[in-house]
């Protein structure tokens, strides 16, 4: 998908049939955070597609299969948000989209919503809703000059119970090896700007904040407090750690579907 700092790798899941630019169904964009990748959303996407939606998940700059740059400016939250907006405008033919961001990806999605207010070139004219899943609003993950083994430990903490099966560990190792160190470091240390909450409230977009019931990185009381500050709905996914879309995709799909159905989208 085209973007200002170079193309983004993505995956689309949709039902067979017509899907050109004039297709009027619901579109959803999913964004992962530090150490994450588009493939983490596949279990959730396969459940949501049954409702007839088109699902797009992306790897951000330097994340997994999206090439990185040696320019730190390319990894700022604003730059990542602009890349996301351009990519979604291209693949969604400027049609409205539901944004779902996880972890530090929630900051990227939220920033994209605020960028759209200024009607900058390439940004979609409308976002239908914003969902923040286990949002790392205060940057609880720190990377610094972490070695791969340390990143494996950080990734294990995101999984329910703090452990990964051998197969999953192999996937994570391959992903970390492909990711640009600047991408990992910047996303792991990202924090919300002081005006982000105020700006989102002023935007008036429908918002949902979701937490995993067993998340050690972003406990439920923090997601509940953020939802209160944003004036957003709040949901809790049972049996899930920091990765509700991986740990309990059925429950998260139900929460999202119910939220979107409130306004018929």
TrEMBL record:
UniProt xrefs under InterPro entries: AB_hydrolase_1, AB_hydrolase_fold, Carboxylesterase_BioH
Pfam families from the UniProt entry: Abhydrolase_6
One example GO MF annotation: catalytic activity
AB hydrolase-1 domain location: 30-253
Region of interest called Disordered, as start-end residue ranges on this chain: 1-22
PANTHER family named in the record: HYDROLASE ALPHA/BETA FOLD FAMILY, PEROXISOMAL MEMBRANE PROTEIN LPX1
Name of the protein this chain belongs to: AB hydrolase-1 domain-containing protein
Source organism: Streptomyces roseochromogenus subsp. oscitans DS 12.976
